[in-house]
Amino acid sequence: MSVSQPLEQAPGCPSGLEPAADAGVIDPAPFVRRTKDGAKALELSVYGAKCGGCISKIEGGLNALPGVETARLNLSTGKLAVAWRGEMIRPRDITQKISDLGYRAAPFDPHVAAQENDAEGLFLLRCLAVAGFAMANIMLLSVAVWAGAGGEMGDATRLMMHWISGMIAIPAAMFAGRPFFRSAWGALKKGQANMDVPISLAVFLSLGISVYETLNHGPDAYFDAAVMLLFFLLIGRFLDHRLRARAREAAQSLLALQATTASRLKNDGTLEAVSARDINPEDRILLSPGDRAPVNGVVEEGASEVDVSLVTGESAPAHMKAGDVLYSGVLNMSSRLIMRATARAEDSLIADLTRLIEAGEQGKSKYVRLADRAAALYVPVVHTLALATFVGWLVIGDASLRVAAMNAIAVLIITCPCALGLAAPAVQVVATGRLFKEGVLVKSGDALERLAEVDAFVFDKTGTLTLGRMRLSNREEISDETLMQAASLARASRHPLARAVVMAAGAGKLADDVHDMPGYGVEGVINGEKARFGRADWVGATSDADNAVSEAWFKLGDQAPVRFLFEDSLRAEAAETISALDHRGVVSEMLTGDRQAPAARIAKSAGLAAWRAELTPSDKIARLKELSDKGVKTAMVGDGLNDAPALAAAHASLSPGTAADASQAAADFVFQGDSLAPVLTAYDVAKQARRRVLENFAFAALYNVCAIPLAVFGFVTPLIAALAMSGSSVIVTLNALRMKTKKSAS
Predict the structure, then answer these.
(1) Residue 242: which of 127, 129, 354, 124 has the closest Cα?
(2) What is the pTM of this model?
(3) What is the pLDDT of residues 478-504, one digit of tens each?
(4) Which entry of 121, 247, 413, 470 is 20 to 30 Å from 50 by CA?
(5) How big is the CA angle at 478 (ends 472 and 483), to the nearest 5 degrees?
(6) Which among 224, 446, 460, 639 is annotated as catalytic?
(7) Residue 460 bears catalytic tag
(8) Would you say the C-alpha torsion 410, 414, 417, 422 has a positive or negative sign?
(9) How wide is the angle at C-alpha 707 spanned by C-alphas 701 and 709, nearest 5°?
(10) Rounded to an integer, what is the distance from CA 66 to the centroid of its chain?
(11) How far apart are CA 692 and CA 454, in angstroms?
């Protein structure tokens, strides 16, 4: 969303701050901006949103406010963007609404948001460590009590064991349970309930009944059940936090390419250093070799080689001269340029790509899994069952308060969705370990689920279907002496074709008086004669090459020019991988920013009938959306910076290990090596993983069908309930371990 100037301060409030209706809600009026079309815009950090249901609740609540046009929450970054018109609502109404829904909001600050997320991760890790330590020690004591249950342990010893367990469990549970207690209390204050409410209730009741039993010298205590419950749940909560943190890396890596400062030419011709955010359209900017363009603009003076891989994905630099368009993030390589800005930093290419990545992550965060849908039923069903059990034993069973409470606690514990929660993560852990051994890194928790659902693979060309490295293709036509002479010039250039010549020639010396001529080639002196390596017309040669090949020419003195041809070869097993996908019923196509002729050659070699060339990053996004609108779920495979938004927007995404950092961050999978075969491996393993997850879901459902009646009718104690809950987790884990076999997916 494009923004410009802050709105005016609120009348009668010198600081621009209005007193909030609720002390816990910060009025964000000073942070409101105007968009280019005149709407008011506000970006907020939202804390406490954990799932797709949270997104629906927040976006739905805000969209219901009068005048709100859009409200979009990105679950990965925690950033909420709201746009509205009119005076019917004030900025503080937005934060108040979020607070009323049970969440916390504050003006968006990436640095502060990152700090808060890091702090949350450390907090969860500390809670997990405390719960694990307590569980291990209490279980040692519990084993001793169980072993002596036949009369070998006296009442005094057993009572001492219970007190020691309580002294460990109570403070540990109060500390480790804070993530659940805070969430439950926040929901209850707003008159709502979430999954953390029954979890917190089970922990408190388990501790309470255990203290009661210990005070009354009862034979049983359930301190171990309370701490074990927290330990298993905190594992899932911490893994969820780590996966979300990884999802933020793509936008952060891309923003790192945005120049933060620039050299602006003043009217009197002097230079001043300014922040990129202070650059306005029509400002003149000096780009020295090694500088990145801070904003979009047009070259006014100079000519230079420019790395435009961010836009086209092609490794070969482009020759830019007066009148050519530059995009933010492109790298000036050889000579000084003066550019005229045509957009502000927030309206330039890097900002646009970042927004596209965030939009893609937003779409994936709404992916509703089976576990989420089942968990949504957990709170009302469990509360109802526990209450019915308690009342039923008191009224119908004529039991004591202690027996009714213990049976209700057993229901709360035995129905804890640990097996359901581990059904997918356990498979993901085993599947990702297997893929790691085969050179594929899995970066997103639900990536395997999404990859198993794809109907089509979309491949980038350069660096993905091909190796992205030019090589000399007509070496046999060039003498060793000519190759070494050309290489002595090429060593002075950073051009990909020059590097390919140096690679073919190997180590050697540099020519005399050598210098780079941007847009033309390299010139120098060899054995007292003038030598050139570069464009045909500059060298004095006549070229009949078509657009499907890359070439350079070498000329020494009066000798005839020698032609050097280059090509970017297919990755190993590229054609075989695409053919195998086709046999599995998955279609493939290629999208590239390269020219038509080389794109056609690579598509034919790879066996691809569907392909498109000369595409921008937005064009690729549009094609993915076109497929999505037809109901096709796509897996994008790309490596360039220009592929990062498409990788984020696709249903699933893969990137080679040689890809740019932003692309790897945006991708769900990163595969190593020069072969394309790992793409097929990842797809096959994802299909197997999906089957294992569904099997685990089926078992979790069967477990609850059998376990709940036993708890309701008093056949299990809270401790047995905790053991049953743990046992169900072990079973789904063992089923997941079957993924270690390399049985091919059909």
Answers:
(1) 124
(2) 0.55
(3) 999 999 999 999 998 877 788 889 989
(4) 413
(5) 75
(6) 460
(7) yes
(8) positive
(9) 115
(10) 33
(11) 18
